[in-house]
Write a structure and sequence with these properties.
Layout: E1 14-21, H1 25-34, E2 40-43, E3 60-61, H2 71-83, E4 87-89, E5 92-97, H3 101-113, E6 119-121, H4 123-129, E7 137-143, E8 147-149, H5 151-164, E9 168-170, E10 175-180, E11 185-189, E12 194-202, H6 208-214, E13 223-235, E14 244-247, E15 253-257, E16 260-264, E17 269-270, H7 280-291, E18 297-311, E19 318-321, E20 328-332, H8 342-353
Parallel strand pairs: 1-2, 1-12, 2-9, 5-14, 12-20
Antiparallel strand pairs: 3-8, 4-8, 5-7, 6-7, 10-11, 11-12, 13-16, 13-17, 13-18, 14-15, 15-16, 19-20
Helix pairs in contact: 1-5, 1-8, 2-8
Length: 372
């Protein structure tokens, strides 16, 4: 996309049908789906789109991730991701101890009933997938269809498609004011540039409530939560065919990456919107928890990073026009599942913005009106 920065050019204020605040995966995919149906502007506060959560994701297409109410969006996204070459086989394995056997079986049964391929494994089955598994881990739920997502390629695909559809991208474009003038929004950026738009879309991720406040819209209590990941060098080397391994109680996950291991304590620490940085304690906690799962030795922590995953109070995404501001559209609260659901979520949101219907997923569970 053509990035516009510096002083506003020309004597007339730029006008658009739709201004999308945030050019991460949510904003970029929505702009791509709207295509040539409207004049679209993406505004991004950073030097480049995807700097924050999108660019720090260890995303997988994982049908049970996010829960049963998110699964329809994940399922509806799978064919697009697969057909366009963004997925590579991985598999996911949720492991548990004896005392959690009933919960593990409920977990497997819930998603099997939704059409997800799930196989319950005993101790022997776990050992076949996880070498060096310590005693106490006795059963698991294997989801063989879980796949890695090429996040960077997917994001760039959507940015390119948005550009081809005629959308503009302005970087270093921080929204400082948005005034509802009755028939349009007048938006003012921190560098003095101004624009008008008919519809203002809030795809600002961790800054979603901040954008709402700037526009005079009631926030929805969308909370940014910090998630930490460390790349570690284990001994022995992590098997290349190791699945994505989750704890049923959400205390850790790990997956192989080019002979290394990506490891997270699955932390969810409330944070102000910011350029998130990992805490040493969280990395240490992740390693300690891994030491309770396998007999591997961690030789070195090579890299660590953190991102902010933003959740609405019920942990479902929010797509739809605000109840009290009918030209303010929420595209927020995607938590940790925003990338794996992006294709379907973008189609659903684009249809709503354009006053159309996309019948593959029911929008009702994701409406912002549920908080009114």
């Amino acid at each position: 996309m053509t990035a516009v920065s510096g002083a506003h050019k020309g004597t007339n204020m730029d006008s658009f049908d739709i201004c999308i605040v945030g050019a991460g995966i949510a904003g970029a995919s929505l702009a791509a789906e709207i295509g040539a149906s409207a004049r679209v502007l993406l505004i991004e506060g950073e030097d480049r789109p995807g700097y924050h959560t999108t660019g720090r994701s260890a995303a997988n297409w994982h049908q049970s991730y996010g829960g049963a109410a998110v699964q329809p969006l994940t399922e509806a996204s799978g064919s697009f991701l697969r057909e366009h070459g963004f997925l590579s086989e991985r598999g996911a394995l949720t492991i548990a101890r004896d005392h959690d056997a009933a919960r593990l079986h409920r977990f497997a049964g819930e998603f099997a009933a939704l059409g997800v391929r799930v196989e319950v494994l005993d101790r022997d089955g776990l050992e076949a997938w996880i070498p060096g598994l310590l005693p106490g881990w006795t059963l698991g739920a294997l989801e063989p269809d879980c796949s890695d997502i090429d996040v960077a390629a997917l994001h760039q695909h959507y940015l390119a498609a948005a550009r081809q559809g005629g959308a503009q991208l302005w970087t270093r474009a921080h929204l400082s004011a948005a005034i509802d003038e009755g028939d349009a929004w007048r938006c003012v950026l921190s560098d003095g540039r101004e624009l008008r738009c008919d519809t203002l879309v809030n795809a600002a991720g961790a800054w979603a409530d901040t954008v709402a406040q700037i526009a005079g819209v009631r926030p929805l209590c969308i909370t940014p939560l910090r998630r930490t990941i460390a790349q570690v060098r284990p001994d022995p080397v992590a098997p290349a065919d190791l699945p994505l391994v989750f704890d049923l109680n959400q205390k850790f996950y790990f997956k192989p990456e080019s002979g290394r291991l990506w490891l997270s304590p699955q932390d969810e620490t409330p944070s102000d919107p910011c350029d998130a940085a990992p805490e040493e304690l969280d990395v240490a906690v992740a390693i300690d928890r891994l030491n309770g799962v396998v007999d591997w030795r961690i030789e070195h922590v090579e890299h660590r990073w953190a991102g902010l995953r933003s959740f609405a109070p019920d942990r479902l995404p929010v797509y739809g026009f605000d109840r009290f501001h009918p030209r303010f559209f929420w595209c927020a609260g995607q938590g940790g599942f925003g990338i794996q659901t992006a294709p379907a979520a973008a189609k659903l949101a684009a249809a709503m913005v354009l006053g159309e219907v996309w019948g593959k997923v029911d929008p009702a569970p994701y409406s912002p009106w549920r908080f009114s």
